[in-house]
Every structure is written in structure tokens, then in C-alpha cells.
Design a protein that fits this description.
The protein is mostly helical and about 60 residues long. Helix content is about 80%, strand content about 5%. Strands 1-2 form a two-stranded antiparallel sheet. α1 crosses α2.
């Protein structure tokens, strides 16, 4: 019985770590997209390979 409880707790810890990793990855993606959209909406004229970030942001939203 004790071994089963220990295994259950270890599994819960693995799930928490996995979920936290996914949440951190999603936060990084959201921050990156947000920064691109902010730069594009300011009309800064920043270019990436000749394409304005505004156009990149539009494609990401669609």
C-alpha cells in the first residue's frame, strides 16, 4: 500500500512538472507574438527580410 501511495505521489509530481513546462512554453510563445504585434502596431518600419512586422503579425492572427 505504501509503495502505491509513493508511486501515485511521484506520478503527480511528474504531471505537475510536465504541465508547468507546457505553461512556460505557451507563455514564451504568447510573449513573442505580443512583442511582434506591438512593434507592428507602432508602425516602426522595422523590416525582417523586406517584410514589415505588421504583415507578419496579421498572418499570425489569421
Amino acid at each position: 500500500m505504501i509503495n502505491g501511495v509513493v508511486a501515485h505521489v511521484e506520478l503527480e509530481n511528474e504531471i505537475v512538472e510536465w504541465t508547468s513546462s507546457i505553461a512556460n512554453s505557451l507563455a514564451l510563445i504568447c510573449n513573442t507574438v505580443h512583442k511582434r504585434c506591438c512593434v507592428a502596431s507602432n508602425g516602426s518600419g522595422v523590416h525582417t527580410n523586406g517584410v514589415e512586422l505588421r504583415e507578419i503579425a496579421k498572418r499570425n492572427v489569421e
